[in-house]
Amino acid sequence: MRHTLTPRHGLLTGLAAVHLLLVACGAFHVPFLQLTDTVRPWAQAYVHWTGASSGFSFFAPGVSPAVKVSFDLEGASGEQLHDDFRSDNSAVNVRIHSMMLRFGLQESRDALARAWAAAMFGRHPDARSVTVRVESLQLPSMEAHLRGSRPLWSEAYRAVFERRLPPPVSAGEVTP
User: Fold this and answer.
1) What is the pLDDT of residues 116-140, one digit of tens each?
2) What's the Cα-to-Cα distance from 60 to each of 57, 63, 81, rounded to whole Å?
3) How many helices (H) does the chain have, and how many strands (E)?
4) Residue 152 — φ and ψ, nearest 5°?
5) Is pLDDT of 60 > 70?
6) Whole-angstrom Cα distance, residue 61 to residue 54?
7) How far is 117 from 96, CA to CA, in rounded Å?
8) What is the pTM of this model?
9) Which residues lie closer than 8 Å to 167 by C-beta, 6 or more apart?
10) Dist. CA 176–CA 165, nearest whole Å
11) Mean pLDDT on 31-60
12) From CA 120, how far away is CA 84, in angstroms rounded?
């Protein structure tokens, strides 16, 4: 039995083929076409929206390192506390992980660290200081791995934040 390709199926098959071609071009970092100024914004929006331009950099050798964040706090009486910023809510953990991925951007590091320290001061109201520590997992090359090297966590960022105390209130005489 022979099936004929309907115009609708032909259109969908063609669109799928174009999409796969764009994905392959993105994966191999090959520019697909020289597009006109009117078509280029639409094509760029499409490849970004669908992920066709991602380049698939999550495959070797361009694997970005895993990152973990921890917080060392000093309490009001000098006791040391540790917080790993986990939550029982999985949606919150996904957001925290997303922030950790953004930590790789140099221009966002200090702002994220300040925000995380503020969150820790909120979680631990008696804390005097918070040390934000970010570690990244350094993966050895395949050759080094075969020689016995193993992945190693190394400190990528450290910042200490002190709780700001409110200015003292004057207890001076009040006159009507």
Assistant:
1) 999 999 999 999 999 999 998 888 8
2) 7, 5, 38
3) 5, 4
4) -135, 130
5) no
6) 15
7) 13
8) 0.57
9) none
10) 30
11) 72
12) 10
The Cα 166–Cα 72 span in angstroms is: 23
Rounded to the nearest 10°, the torsion over CA 85, 73, 108, 48 is -10
The encoded tokens of residue 88 equal 């029982």
Q: Are 157 and 105 in contact (CB under 8 A)?
A: no
Location of structure tokens 């760029």: 44
Q: Which residues contact 108 (CB under 8 A, 6 or more apart)?
A: 102
User: Residue 149 in contact with residue 162, Cβ under 8 Å?
Assistant: no
C-alpha 122/C-alpha 169 separation (Å) is: 23
Is the CB of residue 152 less than 8 Å from the CB of residue 138?
Answer: yes
Amino acid making up residue 135: E
CA 150 from centroid of its chain's CA atoms:
24
Are 39 and 68 contacting, i.e. CB atoms less than 8 angstroms apart?
A: no
- Judge if the upstream peptide bond of residue 61 is cis by omega within 30 degrees of 0: yes
Question: Alpha carbon 164 to chain centroid distance?
Answer: 28
Distance CA 89, CA 3 (A): 51
